[in-house]
Amino acid sequence: MNEVPLVVYPVGRTPRLAGALLGLWLMSILVGLAWSLAQVSEQTSFIWRLSLLLTVLIACGLGLIFFWRTQISQRLAFDGGEWWLYGPDMTPQTNLGEPVAVVLDAWGGMLLRWPGAGCGLNSQAKWLWAEATSVPSRWHLLRCALYSPANRPVAEVAGEPTQP
Fold this sequence. Notes:
Elements (H helix, E strand, L loop, with lengths): L6 E5 L3 H24 L4 H28 L3 E5 L4 E4 L5 E3 L6 E5 L3 E6 L11 E6 L4 H12 L6 H4 L7
Antiparallel strand pairs: 1-2, 2-3, 3-4, 5-6, 6-7
Helix pairs in contact: 1-2
């Protein structure tokens, strides 16, 4: 009864993700403009602050474009014990024994972190976007698999403290 069924779910680019990223960038522009208008009274430092604002907005936009371009169409699969990621060429990639982490659980989508070798800036981790509208009939199965004890390290399930 506690077994997690086999789940295969598509991850990658969706129109809703594009809208969310564009909305996020537009919101940052609005916040930046509001901040810059509040700073107009100090004319001496306005130019360098505006330059800093434009630099940050461009960097954020480039980061969002980079994230969008890394979202290729893939299939995420869970067999009850191990996660697999199948790329466009259907070559399987295993998760190296680490769980797939749910970073953001929004109403109809989830941002997932696929574990990779290394840590910090040298990490080979991948960011995956899963959306409920991709395959609505399997969305609940994916959520069950991601939040099941089978998706966590054995020490964590047993109640033992895990090392960060």
